[in-house]
Design a protein that fits this description.
This is Phosphatase PAP2 family protein. It holds the Pfam family PAP2. Keywords: Membrane, Transmembrane, Transmembrane helix. By secondary structure, this protein is mostly helical. The chain has one domain. It has ten helices and six strands, in the order αββββαααααααααββ. The strands form three sheets. The chain has a two-stranded antiparallel sheet. Strands 2-3 form a two-stranded antiparallel ribbon. Helix 1 runs antiparallel to helix 2.
């Protein structure tokens, strides 16, 4: 048990150190390059900063999730919620496998329909792809560090919920793209993210703490992606004006990813 708690503590310290370092740099304003939406729209500039205020909610959610692994009261809430769900014996549906990506799909669909967000296709794909990479970098190692057993006892990879992390990363992506032009549209993605998290519990795959922690990691991942975007864009653009880069999402063999091609 002592080794288990040490592993959890190490995992939490990693997250805390990342948040602390980024928060210390939050006063530095990063000016993005001018982004051309399309041939008919004017160029826009945007300042991407990562202030401590943007870290409060995800850090609180992550903190709750980590605490639920060892704090007696929170662990009891996990069990009582699972017992309440099992009493009603809900049907296990797999919509959560798809709704985790729904907010991001909506962003691309809305842009295709003429409801433009903050970034063009290339730029938002870089941002969303970065968010997914960061989400995986948080979730996958922590699952193996925590080794928490799932409610259905299928394995020991319960914490944090990967589906929920992706869902909230996607919802935060939708929010950031539309919050300045259509606030209600921007927050609509959170309903799909909450649906995903709830159904991870209804399907007996995750505890309450797993879902809450996953939501925090997802939101944090997207905030980091927007903060990192100017640097990534500069790296991809390079100094050669004749170079070109293309980023494309792909789906193959039930695997979602992002492909990158660059010529110099």
């Amino acid at each position: 048990m002592s080794n288990y708690r040490q592993k959890i503590a190490i995992g939490f310290c990693i997250v805390a150190s990342v948040c602390g370092r980024l928060s210390a740099q939050s006063n530095d304003s990063i000016q993005t390059q001018e982004i051309k939406k399309d041939s008919t729209r004017v160029l826009n500039t945007e300042k991407n900063t990562l202030s401590y205020k943007k870290l409060i909610i995800p850090t609180a959610l992550i903190g709750y999730g980590v605490a639920s692994l060892s704090v007696k009261g929170l662990k009891q809430l996990n069990f009582s919620t699972r017992d309440e769900i099992n009493e009603h014996k809900p049907d296990h549906i797999r919509l959560d496998n798809y709704t985790q990506f729904a907010p991001a799909v909506l962003v691309y669909g809305l842009n295709a329909a003429g409801v433009e967000g903050k970034h063009n296709f290339r730029d938002r794909t870089i941002i969303y792809g970065t968010s997914m990479l960061i989400t995986s970098a948080f979730v996958v190692p922590l699952k193996h560090i925590a080794k928490e057993e799932r409610p259905d006892q299928s394995n020991n990879l319960s914490f944090p919920s990967g589906h929920t992390a992706i869902a909230f990363a996607s919802a935060q992506f939708m929010f950031r793209e539309y919050k300045d032009t259509n606030f209600l549209l921007g927050i609509s993605g959170y309903s799909l993210a909450i649906f995903t998290g709830v159904y991870r519990m209804l399907n007996d795959k995750h505890w309450v703490g797993d879902v809450v922690g996953g939501a925090g990691f997802g939101i944090l991942s997207t905030e980091l992606a927007y903060w990192l975007y100017p640097k990534i864009n500069n790296l991809l653009s390079g100094k050669n004006k004749n170079s070109a880069a293309m980023v494309m999402p792909y789906y193959q063999n039930k695997t979602v990813g992002v492909g990158f091609v660059k010529n110099f």
